[in-house]
Design goal:
Length: about 150
Amino acid sequence: MAGPKEQRWFWSAEELYVQEGLCYEAIARRIPVSKATLSAWAQKGGWAEKRRRWLATREGLSRELRRQLERTARRLISEEGELSDESLKRLERLQRLIQGFEVRGPDMRTMAVEVMGRFAAWLRDQTLSEEDLIILRRAIDGFLGHVEALT
């Protein structure tokens, strides 16, 4: 049975970890829970897998890209004092790329190739006959051809 602290803070901590991308230390600074407790909750709640799935969504990836852009801007300002023209141009390019991603979404062809590549790597570790591998290779090639035609 969950204790009062867990009942009060578990879901807030999970959101900070999964969706905001905070580490245990940063979460512990925001809510009155130790890093050890957060680690136990993360194990119990499967937070690492939830974070991975969250980052696979358009919203999750978009938020993470924006956080990275903000961190990069802060780092450049601290290193340069104020942004040089070149640094400003780089940040503006990144901003435009993020906005394009948010509007158009991810490149489906690239994602399909990535997924099929991982699937093919997984298949190599399976015990399959040469005939089965040929059939699967043809199916993958056919699928990628279909994706290519859509883009």
